[in-house]
Input
Amino acid sequence: MKETSPSSRAGGRAATKSARNHGDGGAEPAVLCADAGALQGFLDRTYAVVGEGEEFLDLDKALEELLSG
Output
């Protein structure tokens, strides 16, 4: 994915991210755009719950728990 820096959009700041499916022979990239302030708030709340370096997810264990329920 190619990351682009925040930009001004409609009087505010926006964070954009573009992604391209490399297996699709040159398809146009998807461009995601979000309000920079809202994105920062979301990330701040996320880090308050899951600290940096604690983002590990054991998918095998999660699948086992899901299927055993």
Remarks:
- The first helix runs from residue 36 to 49.
